User: Fold this.
Amino acid sequence: MRDQGETAARSRGSRSWLRAALTMAVYQLAFLLGLCVYSPVLLWRSIIDARYRRSFRQRMGRVRIESSGKPIVWIHGVSVGEIKAAANIIARLRAERPDLQIVLSSTTPNGHQVARQDHPDLQVMFYPLDFGPWPSRALDRIRPRCVLLMELEIWPNFLQAAARRGVPVAIINGRISEKTFHGYRRAKGMLPQLDRIRLFCVQDGAYQRRLLDLGVDPDTVVVTGNMKYDSVVMGGFEQDGERLRRWLARDGRLVLVAGSTHADEEVLVCEATRAHGASRSMRIVVVPRHPERSGSVVDALRAVGFVAVRWSETNGGASPLPEDAVLVVDVIGQLQKFYAACDIAFVGGSLIPHGGQNMLEPAAQGRAVVFGPHTANFRTDVELLLRERAAILVADANELGTVVASLCEDPVARQSLGERARSVIASNRGATVRTLERLRSMLGAP
Assistant:
């Protein structure tokens, strides 16, 4: 009987191994086909944007790391938001573990640019595409002690390559959206990936439950909180904000900043304020989520009757703005300074079905924060802010215009919103410390 049981177990193991191998083969083929289909877009972007040309060698895993002789911790954030959220854990690691070398990677050019700006003395690279030998090549060149992936950046080929090399991988500041959760549940058992991650440090209980529903070992999933609250800078931009405010509103008018906006939102915001008369009493600043859209944003605003001026055309605020001009910020890394200069902040990606953008940044500056109904990507942040009456949710652009007009007439309401927003952030700090405590075994002894 025991021999039959052992034979059955070996048979199940063989079938599981075969299924995993076939699944990975299908995944690699699908990735190759997708790469072929997307290659004309990559080629076009490489022609018009030098950043794509420079990044492709690194995306093939051909990274060059200047080793200091210390064990390497590889931290990866997909784009700007994840890189910003990683700031505090990077700072703490550097202060508490000088025996470690940190290597930082990002997927998008904007994320890469912000990483280099915020951490000029760290080695910053592009994350390898999850195809063929490229992840293995990057791992062999970096030889990290461990890999820390921000939020839930899961690529099967990379995880398999790390497992083969005995490199532990952890998810930090983990989150799994409802859409992603349903997608993984449909593919459950097909891609061997979640079981290759040693530790999941997630933001809240809802994300923990979703991972457990996917079959993740309960011992590997812990709720540590949202590190964004630790990384958001509370203050520190007062001087920049005051300088910008004097330039934006020489006549003492109010300033509205529409930050991290997506397609069509710039026009929606400006037309909504104009329809309710608020645009006459305030300066409007729009900061597109993707600065490369700035040209089309300017054209769209001019097409509906607004005077639009690019930030880069003002020599960094040296040239005066026309009295009725909408300012379009067309460079990266300036959003926090403009939030510090405003009275009311609208957070983009929320009037359209995108899922929202980071509303903690203007909240940390003590501003009156407003956003639209599409905020699924920041569910926890929205719930906290709304529960404490620290932000305003509007149903559509028309209501946005009404709310902005009302706030323009009520300085007490603006101040109260800002004070409660800062209080929410201050009371939710500490996730970074809890995350580092859980990572001790992976980081090794000092």
In short: The chain has a mean pLDDT of 90. The first helix runs from residue 2 to 48. The first strand starts at residue 72 and ends at 77. The chain has 19 helices and 14 strands.
